[in-house]
Amino acid sequence: MNARIDEIAGAVLDRAGHSKRFLVAIAGPPGAGKSTMADNLAEALKAKGESVAVLPMDGFHMDNAILIERGLLARKGIPETFDVRGFLDIVRAVRPADQEVLVPVFDRSRELAIASARPIAPGDRFIIIEGNYLLFTQGKWAELDGIFDYTIMLAPPIEVLEERLWDRWRGYNLTEEAANAKVYGNDLPNGRLILENRRPADVTLEIALA
Prior knowledge:
Elements: H1 3-16, E1 22-27, H2 34-47, E2 52-56, H3 64-69, H4 84-94, E3 101-107, E4 112-120, E5 126-131, E6 150-154, H5 158-171, H6 176-196, E7 203-205
Parallel strand pairs: 1-5, 1-6, 2-5, 6-7
Antiparallel strand pairs: 3-4
Protein name: Pantothenate kinase
Keywords: Kinase, Transferase
GO molecular function, one term: kinase activity
């Protein structure tokens, strides 16, 4: 296990103390490695005997039909293309640890969110929430300020994001033209928006830790 991941897991445990429920946020632009780090931190905490669940923000993408109607399909992933109210409701429902909460999960291969696809049990002490806008300072996303107990920001250099995003979209067998539109027409501009409008985090990293 990466020593830095183990160190962060230790810091999370120290801050959690005897808390029944502890929310960890992992934020960052598209391609930063948020889901990878969330899974690795979850495994590190489980190795220390803790119960952990991962809540991905991507499950709150608006459906493509709505985005088409609003002329936003090509910009899928920008702040306006998420159900931010629904996301806030779920995070607030998860906070007390007094009931099971079913959360949606995004299927990237089909570009759609699957409702009630992952349960978060009352006994899951640590909830790792990962997504682009967890530390975003604009719009309704700003209501997340103060709701997390520990925050991590992944902020790779733009050139690293660019390479990762090309790898992502080629992996889905997009044409070069389609991948180019995704990377330069949407993901990189969105990444800059996220990096330029973020609250300070407890930990900021240039690379996701394996």
